[in-house]
Amino acid sequence: MKRIVCFVVAGLSLSAFAGNKANPDAIELKPLPVPVEFTSDMDSPVAFDATATVALSCPDGAAADWLGRHFAEWYGAQAPKVVAAGAASSDLPAGDEAYAVTADASGVKISARTLAGVRWAAYSLRLLAIAKRGTFRTEGRLLPTLKIADRPHLAFRAVHLCWFPEVRPQQMERAIRLAALLKFNYAIIEPWGMYASEKHPWWHWPNPTMTKAEVRRLAAIGRDLGITLIPQINAYGHATASRSCTVKHSVLDLQPEYEPLFEPGGWNWCLSNPETQRVLRELIAEMHDDFGRPPFFHLGCDEAQPPTCPECRKAPYAELVCRHLTGLAGFVKERGARAMIWHDMLLDRDDPRWKGYVKCGSKITATLVDTLPKDVIVCDWQYSYGNMKESRKDWPTMAYFKEKGFAVAGCPWMNYNAMRPMADFLSGIGGFGYIQTTWHHLRGHDWVRMYRYGASAAWGTDVRGKGGHGATPQFDTEFALPLRLVGHDMKAVDYLDTGHLNYQVPPGWWIDNN
């Protein structure tokens, strides 16, 4: 029995599946397509195995090869055949990433304008296909009868991932692969003292796992999956390459001879030292090459402190900061990329206009909004500190940067109820995009929520169910399924590379409690 639920979002009439009356949440897909018609009871299943042919309509000549190659990777001998079927359908939604899928008695059809759209269609089908029932081992798959015409809400949809010493390379790969499967198309990788530079081997903790070979491997995986990896360097504050609450410094704790490159205490880079600019440019060039020269480079620049260096204090500080950042942004531009920075130093913390919003700057640093190059992308992180359940409908700081002539991206963290309204606001003002920050949460329930809510917000749909934190079932199959598929793609064999926690019981618990 077919059941279609219609509703209105942002003035558009959309359709969303709601399963059948007996089990309305049986079909799980993240993010939900917009719009979609779904037959969810499997009374009319569609074969999705070696007997099936997928007709692909896409003008991109690489699309059929990509789809056939990945079907073979995912399904082995039971992979459906892929047949090119001409130009994309004329009734596709607007946009380069749009796609349409039908599965019915006549077979499975995919239509898209670009390889990107084909990828999103393939990921939707992969999450919807189930193994045939009644067998000991998988002998092919089935799809429900369905019709999807889908496109993303925002063109730039990113996750921000931190490579701490405690983060295993496998964990980072899982996070990247999962983000792609959930239709994020960018991942900003911030190396917290873990990038193994050949030019400056002192610039990391001992035994770094973010090696050049590993970075190049992950960047290649990302390109294949449709997610571009963007490198980040903290070029102003956070020069410790460590969280402030730890008081660690990836350089000065073990190699004090490099103290002149940093402010006394080490939190900021020393901006008056010409060696700082040289070192940062060489690191930027090296990382940018290792990441495959992506179109963006993040320069960090959040939570800086006032200067204590006697040389930095001699010069007008706003001019010194502007010269430093303008030089680095110009260098990034020479390499064919755009610089990105965090927003907070561009807002005066004492300005009443920003009461209730994240702002870390002074009257001096706030003048940078009028002097920095306008091709710098401002990444406005608004975390609703003090009330993570808060939902707002407008974001005046983002509108401010847009009015000042900057491209602006909105960046939530664990303020889940604010994610969809933030994405809607950005879409309404012509914002650049959405960046889901994760920081030190690449495991656990908060990581699950960030990915679930963030993927839906960036794509333009709500999470399945209502009620915020309590919306997911006890065993979150909606997240478990894509995470499990990522593990299959990685050929995971380690217990640590399953689930969203390293351990079910903390190490040592049995000894301490028995």
Short description:
By secondary structure, the chain is of the alpha/beta class.
Distance between the termini: 54 Å
Q: Largest sheet, if any?
A: 8 strands, parallel
Strand order of the largest sheet: 14-13-12-19-18-17-16-15
Let me know the average pLDDT.
90
Strand content: 15-25%
Query: Helix segment count?
Result: 13
Please write the CATH class name of the largest domain.
Answer: Alpha Beta
- Oligomer category: single chain
Integer count of domains: 2
CATH architecture of the largest domain: Alpha-Beta Barrel
| CATH homologous superfamily annotation of the largest domain | Glycosidases
Cα-atom radius of gyration: 24 Å
Q: What level of helicity do the residues show?
A: 25-40%
CATH topology of the largest domain: the name is TIM Barrel
Task: Give a structural overview.
The protein is an alpha/beta fold and 514 residues long. It has 2 domains: 4-150, Chitobiase/beta-hexosaminidase domain 2-like (Chitobiase, domain 2); 156-497, TIM Barrel, CATH 3.20.20. The protein is 29% helix and 18% strand. The chain has 13 helices and 19 strands. Strands 14-13-12-19-18-17-16-15 form an 8-stranded parallel β-sheet. A 6-stranded mixed β-sheet has the order 3-11-7-8-5-6, with helices on one face. It has a 3-stranded antiparallel β-sheet with strand order 4-10-9. Helix 10 (419-429) links the parallel strand 18 and strand 19. Helix 3 (169-181) runs parallel beside helix 4 and helix 3 (169-181) crosses helix 12 (477-489). The radius of gyration is 24 Å and the shape is globular. It starts with a strand and ends with a helix.
